[in-house]
Design a protein that fits this description.
8 helices; single chain; globular; Serine Threonine Protein Phosphatase 5, Tetratricopeptide repeat; mainly alpha; 137 residues
């Protein structure tokens, strides 16, 4: 609560502090306030449209809210940015989230393709396979 209050004050003083909106989003997710978290993600993205953390978090929250098509759009944007800047570990996790979102929509073949990409990248990066293999089954 105290951290959130301090962050609220900081964002009042400097509303263009996109990292603050990212942190606020995470705090709101932890509190189960998903719609409010989405609002903070959108504020962050308005300030910094290439903020991959906000795109990924927004996709994660939209999946929780079962808004899978919107989640996929956000996660696709995060994936595009990760690939541009070379954040491969985050790319693997985003591929996993995309697989899960497509699976939820019943798009099994698309989900399988993302899953295979995630597993291949996890193997290449040395991410434990037991951790990443769960997403395919």
């Amino acid at each position: 609560k105290k951290r959130s209050s301090s962050l609220d004050k900081a964002l009042e003083i400097k509303p263009d502090y996109y990292e603050g909106w990212d942190t606020q989003s995470i705090l709101l997710v932890d509190l189960g306030k998903y719609e409010e978290a989405i609002i903070c993600c959108k504020k962050s993205l308005k300030i910094k449209p290439d903020n991959y953390k906000a795109w990924k978090l927004q996709g994660f929250v939209l999946r929780i809210l079962r808004k899978y098509k919107e989640a996929i759009a956000s996660l696709d944007k995060a994936l595009e940015i990760y690939r541009e800047i070379g954040l491969r570990k985050d790319e693997a996790d985003t591929l996993k989230q995309l697989a899960e979102a497509h699976q939820a929509l019943g798009e099994v073949e698309v989900a399988r393709q993302y899953c295979q990409q995630a597993l291949a990248l996890a193997t290449e990066l040395g991410i434990p396979l037991a951790q990443s293999a769960r997403l395919c089954y």
